[in-house]
């Protein structure tokens, strides 16, 4: 017997039917790369369908989806439409209802799943007690200052959401859920515009006996924000999410900085951190992102606080859709 064959890992035997659900809105720039990533998945092609739900796009997204069906016969692409409710959660619900798989995997149109993503995400479900599997989100290579700052802080990593003090959860950019669970707790809240990933995970973990598992090798890559406007919008959305989850689940609101705290942190940066990091930069041990980390971080804190103050959860956003 060849000893080299004994040392090779056995292929996984747990290969259930899976539906991958991807909402998309005005995604003509992202769809070609996304489709290429789906084509490159190592999960058996006959056991997975890729449901891409157009959420009332005004660009060439619908046309590109139809073209992809014709030009990518090697995988099962199912383009659907959710034109009524402008929300990624409504689009995901449309995909869930149409799904035929026993397990659902979620990602986003601007994500780039690695080839073994789906295979790694599904394997923990071999444990019949696991209802949610969370994969990791890594950064696509970026050259701008703000991309480097976000990568330094690992802004997108699921380690932050998994360590949430109220209850762990996974972002829908990389999340797997047993389809049957939606029959127990309901679907996403269609009119919610942010925070729906935490909401669905918390409903599952708080209302049922299902457990969550982290699959660090199930990786999707995502591009960080490149402009200050995009970064502020991202952090305002985080603040809105926290307000909505406070209303829905009673979690603590994030503490807002007062003027004195902003001034203290900026003063400490100018007097202590800035000189130290400049010296490190001369020694090639610090980057511009290291030098400007504090002021950029304070801009993010301010945007998050603004989002939390301005958020207003509508009554329709409280509604839980049914399967």
Automatic annotation (TrEMBL):
The protein's Enzyme Commission number: 2.4.-.-
UniProt entry tagged with the keyword Transcription: no
Glycosyltransferase found in the keyword field: yes
First-tier enzyme category under EC: transferase
Domain Glycosyltransferase 2-like intervals: 19-178
GO molecular function: glycosyltransferase activity
Domain of life: Bacteria
SUPFAM superfamilies: Nucleotide-diphospho-sugar transferases (SSF53448)
Keywords carried by this UniProt record: Glycosyltransferase, Transferase
Matches recorded under Gene3D superfamilies: Spore Coat Polysaccharide Biosynthesis Protein SpsA, Chain A (3.90.550.10)
Name of this chain's protein: Glycosyltransferase
Species of origin: Laspinema olomoucense D3b
């Amino acid at each position: 017997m060849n000893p080299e064959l004994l040392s090779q890992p056995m292929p996984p035997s747990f290969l259930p039917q899976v539906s991958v659900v991807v909402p998309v809105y005005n995604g003509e720039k992202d769809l070609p790369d996304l489709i290429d990533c789906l084509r490159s998945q190592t999960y058996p092609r006959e056991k997975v369908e890729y449901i891409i739900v157009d959420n009332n796009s005004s660009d060439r997204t619908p046309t590109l989806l139809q073209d992809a069906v014709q030009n990518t016969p090697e995988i099962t692409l199912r383009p659907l439409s959710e034109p009524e409710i402008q929300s990624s959660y409504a689009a995901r619900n449309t995909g869930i209802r149409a799904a035929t798989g026993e397990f659902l995997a979620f990602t986003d149109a601007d994500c780039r799943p690695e080839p073994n993503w789906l295979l790694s995400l599904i394997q923990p479900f071999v444990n019949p007690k696991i209802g949610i599997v969370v994969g990791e989100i890594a950064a696509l290579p970026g050259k701008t200052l703000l991309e480097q700052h976000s990568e330094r802080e690992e802004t997108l990593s699921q380690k932050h959401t998994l360590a949430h003090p109220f209850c762990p959860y996974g972002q829908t950019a990389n999340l797997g859920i047993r389809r049957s669970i939606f029959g127990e707790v309901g679907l996403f809240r269609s009119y919610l515009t942010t925070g729906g990933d935490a909401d669905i995970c918390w409903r599952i973990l708080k209302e049922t006996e299902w457990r969550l598992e982290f699959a660090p090798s199930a990786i999707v890559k995502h591009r960080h924000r490149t402009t200050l406007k995009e970064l502020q919008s991202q952090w305002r959305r985080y603040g809105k999410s926290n307000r909505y989850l406070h209303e829905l689940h009673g979690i603590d609101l994030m503490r807002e900085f007062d003027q004195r705290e902003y001034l203290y942190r900026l003063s400490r940066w100018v007097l202590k951190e800035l000189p130290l990091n400049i010296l490190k930069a001369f020694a090639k041990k610090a980057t511009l992102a290291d030098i400007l980390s504090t002021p950029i971080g304070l801009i993010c804190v301010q945007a998050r606080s603004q989002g939390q103050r301005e958020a207003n959860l509508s009554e329709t956003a409280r509604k839980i859709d049914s399967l």
